[in-house]
């Protein structure tokens, strides 16, 4: 049975066993574009990937299924070398513990996503990045573009163009890197991992 067939069976929930780890050759491939209309499997895979992220952020499900929390997942990470990424970025609770008005600041499955323009200004997360495919810590600033414009298709084949900044911009760049065979630590300066270049924005 092909990987995508196995992952998209109706009873299957993606878990950590489906996620390939650093060193697996699929993580270093440039993934193939999808063509439209999408196959049922490509649509269901996107939904399952988003479902994984939702479960990974739910304390009860995450505990039960043994999931590491995640805000993004790219198809190559489940060994499907296609240009499909899922992102699910929750909005924070208010300081008094009230749930946010909108649960998510970003919730989408993006097919053939492409960065069509970006700021010259660079940004990095203050605490560095992690990855569901990388089990060990890789400390250092992951240098990225601060703002990006992304074009992508949704599951219906409709084209969208979105502008992203801050954390959402970082998450989408991390996932688009995966479909290009790039790992986050490739973007850390090996000699000086915490060097703050001129104009670098450090994000919380
Ligand atoms: Zn990753």
Automatic annotation (TrEMBL):
Keywords assigned by UniProt, alphabetized: Hydrolase, Iron, Metal-binding, Protein biosynthesis
Gene encoding the protein: def
Cofactor(s) of this protein: Fe(2+)
Protein name from the UniProt record: Peptide deformylase
Active-site residues annotated for this sequence: 175
InterPro entries: Peptide_deformylase, Peptide_deformylase_sf
Residues spanning the membrane: none
Uppermost EC category: hydrolase
Domain of life: Bacteria
């Amino acid at each position: 049975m092909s990987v995508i067939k196995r992952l998209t069976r109706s009873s299957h929930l993606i878990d950590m066993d489906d996620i390939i780890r650093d060193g697996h050759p699929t993580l270093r491939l440039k993934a193939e574009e999808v063509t439209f209309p999408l196959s049922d499997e490509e649509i269901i895979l996107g939904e399952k990937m988003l479902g994984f992220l939702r479960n990974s952020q739910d304390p009860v499900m995450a505990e039960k299924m043994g999931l590491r929390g995640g805000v993004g997942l790219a198809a190559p990470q489940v060994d499907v070398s296609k240009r499909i990424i899922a992102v699910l970025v929750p909005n924070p609770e208010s300081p008094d513990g009230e749930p946010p008005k909108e649960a998510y600041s970003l919730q989408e499955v993006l097919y053939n996503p492409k960065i069509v323009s970006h700021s010259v200004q660079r940004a990095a997360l203050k605490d560095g990045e992690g990855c569901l495919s990388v089990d060990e810590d890789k400390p250092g600033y992951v240098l990225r573009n601060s703002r990006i414009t992304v074009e992508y298709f949704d599951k219906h084949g409709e084209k969208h163009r979105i502008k992203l900044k801050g954390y959402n911009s970082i998450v989408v760049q991390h996932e688009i890197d995966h479909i290009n065979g790039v790992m986050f630590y490739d973007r850390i300066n090996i000699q000086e991992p915490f060097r703050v270049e001129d104009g670098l924005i450090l994000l919380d």
